[in-house]
Amino acid sequence: MKNNLLVFCLIVSSYNAFGQGFSGKILDSLTKEGIPFASIMLTDYQLGARCDSAGNFTFKGSFPESVQLKASSSGYETQFSAVSTLSEIQIYLNPQHIEMHEVIVSGARNQLQRYNSTHIEHRTMSDLNVIPATNLGQSIEAIPGVYNSSTGNGVSKPVIRGLQGVRVVSLLNGIRIENQQWGGDHGMGLTDLGIGTVEVIKGPSSLLYGSDALGGVIYFFDEAFAPQKTHELKITSQFETNSMGTINSLFYKGSIKGLRINVGGRFNSQADYQLASNQFVKNSRFQESSGKVSLGWNRGKWISHLKYTYASARLGIPGHTHDSIISPELFKSSERRRAKTLPVQNFINHILSFENKFVFKKHTLDLLVGGTQNKLEEFEEKVTIPYLSINLTNVLYNFKMTSTFNKRFSAVYGIQGMAQNQVNGTKAEERLLPNSTQFDNGLYTNFYMDLASWKFQVGARADVRTIRSSKDSVYFPNEFEKIFGGYNFAIGAVYSSKKHLLRFNVSSGFRVPHLSELLSDGVHHGTFRYEIGNRFLKPEKAIQLDVSYEYTSEHLSFVLNPFISQVVDYVTINPRDSIIDGFQVFEYEQLSSVQLIGLDAGFHYHPHFAHFLHLESSFSYIRGFSRANGNLSLMPQPRINTSIIAKLATKSKFRISEIVLQHTYFLPQNNVILFETTSVDYSLLNLGINFTSDTKLPFTLQLGVRNLTNTNYINHLSRLKNIGLESPGRNVYIKLLLTINYHEKK
To answer: Model-level pTM?
Structure first.
């Protein structure tokens, strides 16, 4: 062991022999002049810098001979390239009025979006929060094809193309977020603290992310570290009138002699939300706290990132009742309250990741290990004794190699897995699931071929999951053990020219039934039903054809993305004609085959005669059905999102920088199953005015209104829809962002 450690230290120290920094220049491809204050980033290192007024940049430190750079500037197309650090670097950017092709890193390797055979939605959190949201789920539902299944303001779950829960995998910096996603009343357990971007892969994605990624993947990335020799402190405060909510955060980013650090905290307190009728929804209050620490350092070819995220929440459970006859008026009040009451759900999440990357001339080795811990407690009638108490611990690994053989051929291959342990609290009154362990292991490979205008991708993967549960003399008299296996593939092609982009992608996926679907036997209060599992369920298997066409010109761009997916052995839950403990009984079963078809479409118009104006609109439609059994449940309403953004440029130090008008139209949803009610159409209108200050202490002020017309509505995916509880009414907000920057002297 000592000898191995000595060898490792010698290897790491030897990386100092590589060059002591490098410099370059970013230029306009037309004028050949430097672009002032352009941004440059070493993508593998998450290390950024800002050019001077002439477009020059410098990176200090020890770096290998070849590095990957991302260059960007407002009004120019983002450029991604591999360069040599042994000579002066010149990067040319093409002017562009509409930015469409960002660098995507979650698709297994760093590359431009236009070269991915799968259409990946990429958004920055600042763009998603141009009109601030109350929670992370509300922020990301602005992405086409992404919806939000909510239980009031406190619980929010992402829905991708009609699929949610355990069919959608969420990741933070490469670590799977495992926090009881099987429960309809269990949210992501994550806030937007320190998150910089989010990417969404829609449809089966088991090739890179294993079992469960049947519906898609949501990948959250932390903000990049601060540029070298810079420090930044962000102070944010937000107030909302609808729930008298306050959201306050403090976040620091700094780079000190090769060590990069991000650290911050956030607190969100919300009282009961107000309806359009001016009444309040009882026990819709919640509080959440979060903290984050990220460290980064590098030595030559070795790059290391250590990241930790903490999140906890106390969530009221609105709409809770044991009555067989339910009236929505039982859950409304003329008074708003914030104090803790029952029933309540408490959770604590810990997410830790340790990534080590070794960059060679033609190969990059990425070693990621980490873990998550989730503690969930639900209190129903007693303050001291939980009704449910579950502790979930996960240890994860991902060893990945990226190889570039020549200009045309490259590959990504690796192994990944997870060990999971779930234990019920001994003091809990009830157990919905038994104590259990789960082991995942997967082997995958992906090949890429570049033939000028055409690019091709093909890959395959094999996975094995083992589930074991222990018996319990009171709740679960029998043990359970089963091994599930699956194979997956993906084939894709993309054709690109200056204005046109055409993608074809066929991918498969599979999902092993969750323990809740196999062995549940008890009351699940978040869904207001008694659930019974089915231990004979088989894995779901899916295959999807995804086609997209994009057109981009100087002032107009649009995208059309139709898809069709078939899922075999689809797991569903249906009601039975019986009542246990005052709750209707629901039992899990399988449909032989279901189909999901739909379309995501959108356009962005930036008129030549009004350069300050941006008009964006998107349309999302999904239909789920079984030829033998009819419609699928909980399919989202068709939706049209439209935004008009005026970006104003005045010379005053305190000025209006943006005026934003958002309109969302939800079409009716009449394709429902027997125990599901239809939903009518409705419109929501949001208005925001953003101010910017260029004083010595720069700040941004956001003022506006969500649901400007005070529309009374119930979204089809709301968990409170079955008892007739409406969503929040008009919400006036004010948000202040204060930024303090400090640059060390050279």
So the answer is: 0.90
